[in-house]
Design a protein that fits this description.
- By secondary structure, the chain is mainly α.
- The chain has two domains: 89 residues, Leucine-rich Repeat Variant (Alpha Horseshoe), CATH 1.25.10; 119 residues, Serine Threonine Protein Phosphatase 5, Tetratricopeptide repeat (Alpha Horseshoe), CATH 1.25.40.
- The chain is built from 13 helices and no strands.
- The radius of gyration is 19 Å and the shape is globular.
Length: 220
């Protein structure tokens, strides 16, 4: 792609920063750029081009761009990392058909309301229909955790990570499960995995330091 076209994407991005109009940014970007081009720019462009492309993917792409945003979580530029973290969470919901996504949104709403048993039933039905839908496993893991079924929750977190190796949220969740199961060393490894995936998880870094000190302290 010509430098002039790269400059156009950056101009669209700067205009978005000034106005906050995401709809206009998406429309202007979609008219000129394919998702494949945006993925290449997110990975190999100059700093502002990477920021613009990462933002665009977070707003426009589906789960097929997950690896690109997952790698952007460790970009050398903090702005890119923040945009990737915000965008990738939305990508995790954009898998499957429109019906699958609608059912997932219903599950997420019910999880937020603490309807654990209902979520487990609905998520299980969705998993049986589309077992590759990583976020369905993650939502069931959340429901299991809220219901204090920590072993089941950890297993679902593990399955989430097998389907989506960039899901730092599942790595954190699995760590919390192992804390509840009194397995501090397993929890520590999960938290470290989460930080390797997303170095911006400062609260998890603090938890790692605290847990490591606690585990290294001599027992009476």
């Amino acid at each position: 792609m010509k430098r002039q076209q790269h400059a156009l994407l950056v101009e669209n991005y700067q205009r978005y920063l000034a106005t906050g109009e995401s709809g206009a940014f998406v429309s202007q970007t979609a008219d000129r750029y394919t998702l494949g081009t945006l993925e290449r720019l997110a990975a190999f462009g100059a700093r502002d081009a990477r920021r613009a492309a990462t933002l665009a993917l977070g707003l426009m792409a589906d789960f097929s761009s997950n690896a690109t945003l997952g790698k952007a979580l460790t970009d050398g530029d903090r702005g890119v990392r923040l945009l990737a973290e915000n965008g990738i969470r939305d990508l995790w919901y954009r898998d499957g058909t429109v019906e699958h996504r609608w059912r997932l949104q219903d599950i997420i709403r019910r999880n937020g309301a603490g309807q654990c048993d209902t979520v487990i039933r609905l998520a299980t039905e969705l998993i049986e229909e589309v077992p590759w839908f990583a976020e369905a496993w993650n939502q069931r893991a959340i429901a299991y955790f809220q219901g204090c079924e920590f072993r089941n929750s950890a297993n679902d977190c593990q399955q989430t990570l097998e389907l989506n190796p960039y899901h730092f949220g599942a790595a954190v969740g699995m760590g919390q499960c192992y804390l509840e199961l009194n397995d501090g060393w397993a929890a520590l490894e999960c938290f470290r995995r989460a930080v390797r995936l997303n170095p911006s998880l400062e609260a998890v870094r603090m938890q790692i330091d605290h847990l490591h000190r606690a585990l290294e302290e001599p027992k009476d």
